[in-house]
Amino acid sequence: MPPRQGVSAALGFLRKRSRTGLKRSSGSVVAAVQMTVCAVGAYAFAEEVLGHNGPLFAATSSMISLGFSRDPRIRRVLEVAIGCTLGISVGDLLLTFFGTGLWQAAVVLFISILLARFLDSGTIFTTQLGLQSLLVVLLPAPQGGPFTRSVDAIVGGLFALVITMLLPRDPRREPKTNVRGLLGELSGVLRESASALRTSDSTLAWHALVRARSCQAQLDSLTGSMKAAQEVARISPAYRRHRDELGSLRSAVESIDLAIRNSRVFSRRLTSAINHAALTDEAIEALGQSLEDTADAVDVLSRALSARDSAERRLNLRQARNDLAAVATDLHPATLNISRLEGEGLVLLLRPLVVDLLEATGLSHEDAADYL
């Protein structure tokens, strides 16, 4: 490579890395502020209020417990905080019996790891308990006595827990972003299926099936963000008022999960129906329109579930429910001019998908099924 091209490539790489780093740093400002406040606050409290000299473990315990995450989960914070505190306490306790040294450190670490595995299956918990107990044995004892460090660790863990409870960002944001992306994919699957049906393209129908299967990763991410959001809403005074909304969103997500599963079954059967030319032109147009209408309703449902304003959410939910009800009413083989068995099978597979979506709008299963 000529020198000039090499320099140009290096500069391009540096610019790209700089943009990525700047974006990552700007998105981490809130987390950095939380960690700074937590660590300095824990250190100051242990030093000024408790009178401990250089309470390093208060700061480190709080930082490790809080972790570098935009939305620290309570279980993880508690797991790390308890692991740190237990590790330091176990180290202090064993230190009084064995003293300091390399073989003592090996014994303490071995016992700490086994104790951690006995108490909890989490790898973070085990790592923190073992690491903190090892540091206690290897580092010189503080002036206030061996168990001073245990108290410092408790202070750090409590500060991390308080910060997590009082200063989280809106817990609804990530689940709503995720549900919008997931419903966008479901809408795309339905539109791709409609296009495959109208063009008699079984390969396109197979692509719709692959796309529906690939939604699982998004669904798993949404499920995780829902759990974290409900966890924060339960304990955070600032967001406790959103518990009902998050509960409704979680119920909707469960119905969306079923709808996506049914879309996979439908797409797979659609591939076979196209290959066997199972539908007349009239049936193709009618069923294709039903798929398009369902996709349009999914888009409205997406706007409803991701809306921040309650009035907008109710309005879009009502519209999505009405649109899906109109689709469900016509989902009958005779109405869609379908007479052959494979075509009837497609309709029978689409019906539960629409029912699942109706349930996602807030209807019970019985009320949703009544529209069929």
Write the layout of secondary structure elements.
Elements lengths: L2 H24 L2 H21 L6 H11 L7 H25 L3 H18 L3 H16 L9 H19 L6 H27 L2 H12 L1 H21 L7 H33 L5 H26 L3 H20 L11 H20 L4 H5 L3
Helix pairs in contact: 2-3, 2-7, 3-4, 3-7, 4-5, 4-6, 4-7, 5-6, 8-9, 8-10, 8-11, 8-12, 9-11, 10-11, 11-14, 12-13, 12-14, 13-14
What report would you give on this structure?
By secondary structure, the protein is mainly α. It folds into 2 domains: 26-166, no CATH class; 173-369, Up-down Bundle (Methane Monooxygenase Hydroxylase, Chain G, domain 1). Helices cover 80% and strands 0% of the residues. It has helices at 3-26, 29-49, 56-66, 74-98, 102-119, 123-138, 148-166, 173-199, 202-213, 215-235, 243-275, 281-306, 310-329, 341-360, 365-369. α8 (173-199) packs antiparallel against α10. The radius of gyration is 29 Å and the shape is elongated. The termini are far apart. The mean pLDDT is 81. Residues 44-163 form the Integral membrane bound transporter domain. It comes from Arthrobacter agilis. It is a multi-pass membrane protein. Keywords: Membrane, Transmembrane, Transmembrane helix. It is found in: Membrane.
Label this structure with key terms.
372 residues, mainly alpha, Methane Monooxygenase Hydroxylase, Chain G, domain 1, 2 domains, 15 helices, membrane, Memb_transporter_dom
Number of strands: 0
Order of helices and strands: HHHHHHHHHHHHHHH
Per CATH, the architecture of the largest domain is Up-down Bundle
CATH topology of the largest domain: Methane Monooxygenase Hydroxylase, Chain G, domain 1
Helix content: over 70%
Shape estimate = elongated
- By secondary-structure content and strand pairing, the structural class works out as mainly alpha
The oligomeric state is single chain
- Largest sheet descriptor: none
End-to-end distance, in Å?
67 Å
Question: CATH top level of the largest domain?
Answer: Mainly Alpha
Radius of gyration, taken over Cα atoms and rounded to an integer in Å:
29 Å
Strand content: under 5%
Low-confidence stretches: none
The overall number of domains is 2
How many DSSP helices?
15
The residue-averaged pLDDT reads 81
